[in-house]
């Protein structure tokens, strides 16, 4: 069994990005600039956004954090989005989700210009992704592809089982891995809350991607020997012995699954760091390639 070290991989990719930025600056070009909008006090969102801003600093990007209280109106937030769309100094930006209940997330996502949508959440980017056109890939699926590629894990002709059908992970990764491309050509099954006999599907998986959002749902009896396990879950579970009173755990029961796996991502230190790197890669792409 080999651990897929997302933390190490992310440091390698960040070093590559930093090198590109150094070259840009040395040749008199403006460095990439990412902006993040954070609304309210959701503790997990605060941690994620802090990581994103810190990662920008590590690779030499400019970053701007716009913090607003949970009382902000939808109109005010749309105004911020429109200003960021127009700001020529900003290559890409994200509005961290979830948003407070009185704000329609769909409306905000649709308001973000596809050209600056480095989260890859806008339906234009999603549609382009589904048809294999140039686009910004959603960060977590892009991070998973990068991990499979850099660990030389073959996907062509493999049975991939994805558990969870969210717009930002399960659905896009199932499309990407089934497409005719370098990391793709797999036979993909997308399982969800209405799937009958989940374990009959997961036991067939050569590659299992768990994105359920509940701790320890995939157990050792649900996988076959040699499976490659990608655990997207980041769940807080109470732990009185931990400093903060909780610890982070994945959707996969690591203890029972790892001994049967050929490769497995840990939580933390697996998919999470690669997601942040994908956001940086999209921002660099926006600065350099101008796909729109
Ligand atoms: N909330 C959880 N994950 C994400 C993400 O990747 N981007 C944004 N904007 N919000 C999130």
Describe this structure in words.
The chain has 292 residues and is α/β, with parallel strands linked by helices. The chain has 2 domains: 28-113, Rossmann fold (3-Layer(aba) Sandwich); 139-272, Rossmann fold. It has helices spanning 6-26, 43-59, 74-86, 105-111, 123-130, 139-150, 170-178, 198-202, 254-257, 271-288, and strands at residues 2-3, 33-39, 62-68, 92-95, 159-163, 187-191, 207-210, 227-231, 235-238, 246-249, 261-264. The chain has a 6-stranded parallel β-sheet. A hairpin with a 7-residue loop joins strand 9 (235-238) and strand 10 (246-249). Helix 1 runs parallel beside helix 10, helix 6 (139-150) crosses helix 7 and helix 6 (139-150) crosses helix 10. It is globular, with a radius of gyration of 19 Å. The model has no long low-confidence stretch (mean pLDDT 97). Guanine (GUN) binds next to strand 4.
Question: TL;DR?
Answer:
The chain has 292 residues and is α/β, with parallel strands linked by helices.
Q: What order do the helices and strands come in, and which of them pair?
A:
Layout lengths: L1 E2 L2 H21 L6 E7 L3 H17 L2 E7 L5 H13 L5 E4 L9 H7 L11 H8 L8 H12 L8 E5 L6 H9 L8 E5 L6 H5 L4 E4 L16 E5 L3 E4 L7 E4 L4 H4 L3 E4 L6 H18 L4
Parallel strand pairs: 1-11, 2-3, 2-4, 5-6, 5-7, 7-8, 8-11
Antiparallel strand pairs: 9-10
Helix pairs in contact: 1-10, 2-10, 6-7, 6-10
The structure holds guanine.
The largest sheet is: 6 strands, parallel
CATH H-level name of the largest domain... which superfamily? NAD(P)-binding Rossmann-like Domain
The domain tally reads 2
Low-confidence stretches: none
